[in-house]
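explain this:

___
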Amino acid sequence: MPVELKIGEFKPEYVGKMQFYLGALDEQIKLHHENPSVGLILCRSKKDSVVRLTLGKTHKPIKISVYQTKLPDKKLIQQRLEKIKFPEKLLTSDSS
């Protein structure tokens, strides 16, 4: 899976480069029984309308997401962790 980290806002031309990477990866490295590669472009910010228009006609699976440069507030992290439903066996300690 090729991952590209960009320091600025998403630009449509990033998708063309990622399609090249995916084509090369699928042609030269991927084994015949493996699924097609998926690309991930991480940007500081993105406009959903630009992403939608850019990805509308792509032939390779590409995902666009944003990253954060600092962690959210500790209380917010704790609240979100409390909402996660963990499997019971992870919540109980097994001393055997």
Notes: The chain has one domain: 3-91. The beta strands are 3-5, 39-43, 62-66. The two ends are 39 Å apart (CA to CA).
